[in-house]
């Protein structure tokens, strides 16, 4: 290591890049420091990474860290050894022009002094003393240019490891809080989208649906959120939303994106059906578990992050009393509102009365248990669906739906039913003859959603209309949300 600046100069055009490029005749006159300067630069190149540089024999010996410095001694990070850099680079920040080596924005993430405990060709052990980076680290050579960087000190007191899995907290269907209680509640828009948690670590985003599926590939326009957060570690809670031409959430438009697993197809659809990640909660931030804080405190820390851009936003709670907010949402054609108790902690996976959803449009999640053939222009296709909801004694029949479909939806359902076909009814009791005649039964593993006017006295959906499949939700989670 500390091999000189020849490779550094060969990769750069001094007449184009703003980076310091010393002349060859300056090689012999390298500054002789104390081998104790370090700098870490955040580099938004083709792939976000952090450049870790240690002064050694008049140059900056350098490694690229794709996920930055590790904060947890249980998790090592990759470090890729790169060419030595001149000492002047310790002060460099700026934009490397396009088509130049390392093109992109460079900023100084941290710098300071370090002490050397060991330095060989295969192991470098140092103690960092910077503004953000503190403590003992070791770099270990593994293969070729690849090294590992390991934090030797324990995590800071009070810090916790970033979780890799969480379930979102859920709201119950309920009336508005009483008018005299408004001060204790915050009111948010109900966004009519798909719930998702965002895990950001080392500038990389992982999106996870409510039923614990990684859906990152489906929404490529959101990957820039990771780069925007840089080295900040967070777990966010929010909703994936498609907006129509009038700026209203459109679940129908979102349907075009929810089933896509092809990276190429998702990229194409992101142009015509762009998704916005609407962020409304912050569960983890840079070593701190925030779920035990109040809603008010979590929202303040979320606001401080300033997460607002074309593909993500952090809307504030809506001003006004519950009745005023609900009426305004109805006038704007929105699905409804969510009332959240300001003092409430975040309870992962729990459905509690501290979060209440109040809908303008009645909607119900259902399981598809069978289908009936269509006629007329739907001849040879699915005509209607037989719907159920899990009950204490098994699957309960709640009616059939034959409206609200597009032809593309029906064709897609027909393809999926081929692999789910079964010979007998999956319902716990017999379905009325008029509905079961000519029925084709399927394994009830697909979750869908219908809008409806009311429940009938015998527990059926009146005037149901199909809204779409819900691949973000699991069959076990389907419950009757509200029935009078």
Using the 3D structure, state the CATH architecture of the largest domain.
2-Layer Sandwich
C-alpha geometry:
elongated
- Tell me the fraction of residues in β-strands, as a range: 35-45%
Using only C-alpha atoms, the radius of gyration works out to: 28 Å
| Widest beta sheet: strand line-up | 1-2-3-4-9-8-7-6
What helical percentage do the residues reach?
A: 10-25%
CATH homologous superfamily heading of the largest domain: DNA ligase/mRNA capping enzyme
| Low-confidence sequence ranges | none
**Which CATH class of the largest domain?**
Alpha Beta
Structural features, described:
The mean pLDDT is 94. The chain folds into three domains: 6-151, no CATH class; 170-358, D-amino Acid Aminotransferase, Chain A, domain 1 (2-Layer Sandwich); 363-477, OB fold (Dihydrolipoamide Acetyltransferase, E2P). It has helices spanning 6-10, 224-229, 251-258, 263-272, 295-305, 322-331, 407-420, 433-436, and strands spanning 37-44, 48-56, 59-65, 77-86, 94-96, 104-119, 123-130, 134-143, 146-151, 170-173, 185-190, 194-201, 204-209, 234-242, 275-285, 288-289, 312-313, 336-341, 351-359, 363-373, 382-391, 394-401, 421-422, 440-442, 447-451, 454-455, 461-462, 465-469. An eight-stranded antiparallel barrel has the order 1-2-3-4-9-8-7-6. Strands 20, 21, 22, 23, 24, 25 and 28 form a seven-stranded antiparallel sheet that branches. Strands 12, 13, 14, 15, 16 and 17 form a six-stranded mixed sheet that branches. It is mainly β and 484 residues long. The protein contains eight helices and 28 strands.
